[in-house]
């Protein structure tokens, strides 16, 4: 297979597109240099292929599990998680096989379709970021504004959020295609510079601190609630044991209070697990996004000497990896998900 390098140091900056990942049709000239490594490409084809398969299988199973039980479907948080799983499926189905294989290393025959693979990337990546923001917003209301949650997070609100989450990436991808197929090369380059800077700010640099700060607040509030419920439980048991001669009616009242406190503790524990699974998904995304952010910052400040084809490959790998671990997080943290998964598997058997 003929391959050549298309590391273009003058290419535009983007949260989703780096110097070696231009979406324009490439000229296959057979000009090899140190930036083009077929061995490196082959290694990441294997690694990303495994990750892509895990993304497809794990997130498809997640969607089936969440949609298989009515009580899971009625939970708004789970609806957002299904939407995130769909974005991850698009990542594994459209971005990994095409964009990561032919548009982030050497130039191959299929590299002439990088504009198409890049369009899929412009849908999957922003959809992932927006879904994480929607999940964070839902958990923020549920944990920090519980009294407002029922009146704020309605079916209409959920529908509106999901429409915004999916229409926005379609607009992002469509706008880029306008000049790619109709403008001259220099005009395209200038448009890419401006547009990629906007995308870097909106979908790269801005969401990360917002996600981090809000989810840290959620974690702190959950910890505070857990301590309060634990103290109430201890006080209830202490009263029941220290009362010297409780009458039958008072004894039943004590028992009832302890039962209510215990039930509240169990419900809070289940909600905590569900929310913590969402928080962990967001935090893993932030950590996985850091190599990509470092890459973009280097390019933004003209330190291309700190970047390399290997860094580009690794930055993509970590983004794909975070899409593959979400089902494992739900399985580990959420008992309701595990039970629904077991029932689904038994029913299929």
Characterise this structure:
This protein has 349 residues and is mainly α. Helix content is 79%, strand content 1%. It contains 11 helices and 2 strands, in the order βαααβαααααααα. The protein has helices spanning 38-68, 70-73, 76-102, 114-144, 146-152, 155-180, 185-205, 207-242, 248-300, 309-333, 335-348, and strands at 4-5, 106-107. A two-stranded antiparallel sheet has the order 1-2. Helix 4 (114-144) packs antiparallel against helix 9.
How are the SSEs placed, and which strands pair?
Blueprint: E1 4-5, H1 38-68, H2 70-73, H3 76-102, E2 106-107, H4 114-144, H5 146-152, H6 155-180, H7 185-205, H8 207-242, H9 248-300, H10 309-333, H11 335-348
Antiparallel strand pairs: 1-2
Major β-sheet annotation: 2 strands, antiparallel
Assembly of the depicted chains: single chain
Principal-axes geometry comes out as globular
Strands in their spatial order, largest beta sheet? 1-2
Beta-strand residue percentage: under 5%
Would you tell me the overall average pLDDT?
77
Poorly predicted runs of 5 or more residues: 1-15, 22-34
Rg: 25 Å
- Helix percentage range: over 70%
Secondary-structure element string: EHHHEHHHHHHHH
State the separation between the terminal residues, measured CA to CA.
45 Å
Structural class comes to: mainly alpha
Q: If helices are DSSP runs of H or I spanning 4 or more residues, what is the number of helices?
A: 11
Q: How many distinct beta strands? A: 2
């Amino acid at each position: 297979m003929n391959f050549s390098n298309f590391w273009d140091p003058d290419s535009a900056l983007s949260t989703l597109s780096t110097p070696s990942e231009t979406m324009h049709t490439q000229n296959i000239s057979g000009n090899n240099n140190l930036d083009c490594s077929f061995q490196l490409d082959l290694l990441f084809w294997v690694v990303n292929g495994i990750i892509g398969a895990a993304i497809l299988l794990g997130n498809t199973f997640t969607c089936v599990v969440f949609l298989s039980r009515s009580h899971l479907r009625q939970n708004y948080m789970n609806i957002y998680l299904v939407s995130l799983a769909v974005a991850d499926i698009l990542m594994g189905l459209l971005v990994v096989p095409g964009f990561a294989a032919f548009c982030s290393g050497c130039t191959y025959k299929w590299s002439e379709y990088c504009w198409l693979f890049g369009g899929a990337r412009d849908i999957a990546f922003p959809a992932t970021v927006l879904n994480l923001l929607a999940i964070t917003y839902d958990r923020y209301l549920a944990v920090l504004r519980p009294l407002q949650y029922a009146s704020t997070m309605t079916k209409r609100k959920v529908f509106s959020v999901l429409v915004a989450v999916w229409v926005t990436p379609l607009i992002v991808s469509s706008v880029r295609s306008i000049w790619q197929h109709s403008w001259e090369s220099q005009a395209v380059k200038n448009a890419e510079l401006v547009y990629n800077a906007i995308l870097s700010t909106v979908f790269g640099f801005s969401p990360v601190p917002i996600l981090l700060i809000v989810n840290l607040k959620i974690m702190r509030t959950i910890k505070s609630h857990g301590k309060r419920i634990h103290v109430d439980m201890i006080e209830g048991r202490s009263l029941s044991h220290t009362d010297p001669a409780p009458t039958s009616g008072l004894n039943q009242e004590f028992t009832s209070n302890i039962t209510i406190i215990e039930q509240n503790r169990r419900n809070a524990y289940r909600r905590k697990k569900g929310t913590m699974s969402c928080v962990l998904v967001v935090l893993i995304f932030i950590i996985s996004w850091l190599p990509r952010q470092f890459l973009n910052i280097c390019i933004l400040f003209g330190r291309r000497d700190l970047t390399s084809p290997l860094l580009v490959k690794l930055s993509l790998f970590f983004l794909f990896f975070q899409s593959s671990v979400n089902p494992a997080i739900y399985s580990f943290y959420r008992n309701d998900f595990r039970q629904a998964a077991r029932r689904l598997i038994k029913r299929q058997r």
